[in-house]
Amino acid sequence: MRPSIRLAALSKARVIYIWTHDSIALGEDGPTHQPVEQLASLRAMPNMMVLRPSDATETVEAWRVALQHTHGPVALVLTRQKVPVLDRTVLASAAGLAQGAYILVEAAGFPPELILIATGSEISIALEAHLQLVGQGIRSRVVSMPCWELFDRQPQSYRDSVLPPSVRARVSIEAAAPFGWERYVGLEGAIIGVTDFGASAPGAVVMREFGFTPERVVEAAKRVLKR
Predict the structure, then answer these.
(1) What are the phi and psi torsion angles at 198 (to 5°)?
(2) How far apart are CA 11 and CA 213, in angstroms?
(3) Does the pTM of the predicted model rise above 0.90?
(4) Do residues 112 and 143 touch, judged by C-beta distance below 8 A?
């Protein structure tokens, strides 16, 4: 589909692409079906808006954004595996997706010591890690970032409220190529991503072996806090 997608972006055509197999969690389908480089590739394409919602509620908001977008194609990147529907009575409203990124939850006290940034199905991993960190007395913030393009268009004041420049301890979690995440985690942050083509095994096993666990996130968080 690459040539037609690129032509749609070049022409600023109003097209909505819906893709459903978004990560290495495809499991036994193996590396041939695991699109580890595709998110970075799509984000690098001019005029393309990439939306990777975390659950059903964010998907509703992503569809709303896609329908209202009139100046180029939209990639709606969904996951095949089951993911929990987040409890919005405890977490922030999914309407924050319209800004590209928003504060999902944070520990009591301000400012946060650490920011965990995640997209898609990895949000649930970030939330579990957040609970572990808070339990250890670390003021953690979780940011859901389903759309880089929308976030980058927000006023500087909003972007700074979500990712305060003073908080340099940051960890990004996305089951895809890490390319590009430096702009959000900075030189002192950590990126948990995929630098190979994945593997063929049950999805949960692949995710664990590639380090997508709350424990790995907690380790990375503590490491960046010491820098």
Answers:
(1) 85, -165
(2) 41
(3) yes
(4) no
